[in-house]
Amino acid sequence: MKLSEEKCFTEPYEIDTLLTGYFKLVEGSSIYDPHKKALFQKNGVTESKFAVQLEKSGDYKFCFTSRRQIYSTTFGGLLKIELEIRGDRSQNEMFTDIKTKSINPIEKEIIQMEQMVKQIKKYLDYSKEREEAMRNTSESTNARVLWFSILSLCILFASTFFQVYYLQNYFQRYKIF
C-alpha cells in the first residue's frame, strides 16, 4: 500500500455473524455494510481490534488508509498491513444453544464444526451464484464483441471494394493503366 492511499476490499458475510478483527500499521480504518453505512471507523491509530455484530447479509467493505511519512522512508514507499478478520456465528446463538442443552465439550465442538460447515456451504452457494452471474456477463460481452468484429470486417471489405472500384475507374479515365 502506498503512502496516502486508501485500499478497500469486500467480503460476503451472512446475517448474525460476529465479525472480529485486528489491524496493525494502519492510520485509519472503516467497515461499511452492504448499504454503505459505516459500522466501524477509527482514525489516527496504528493498531486496533474491532468486533461488529452483522445485522444484514451481503458484501461488507473494508477500507484502510495510511498518511504517515515515516512509513514511506522506512518501507521504501510501500506499507504492509497486518490484518486478521474472522467471521463467526453469533456468540449469543452459541451461548443460547449451550445453555438450553446439556452437552459435553465434544458435542459442543461438533455443533461448532457443523455451523462452520453450514457457513462454508452458504459461502460456496453464494460464490456459485456470483460465478454464474459473471459467466453470463462474460458470454454477453463475448457476443457483443463478435458482432462488433463482424460489423468491422463488413465495413473493411466494403471500404476495400470501394477503393479498388474508385482506383480502377480513375486509372481507366486517365488511361494510366
UniProtKB/TrEMBL annotation:
Organism taxonomic ancestry: Eukaryota, Metamonada, Anaeramoebidae, Anaeramoeba
The organism of origin for this protein: Anaeramoeba flamelloides
Family statement drawn from the similarity comment of this UniProt entry: Belongs to the EMP24/GP25L family.
Location (main, coarse): membrane
Ranges that cross the membrane: 145-167
Topology versus the membrane: Single-pass type I membrane protein
Positions of the GOLD domain: 6-85
Name of the molecule in the record: Transmembrane emp24 domain-containing protein
Keyword Signal in annotation: yes
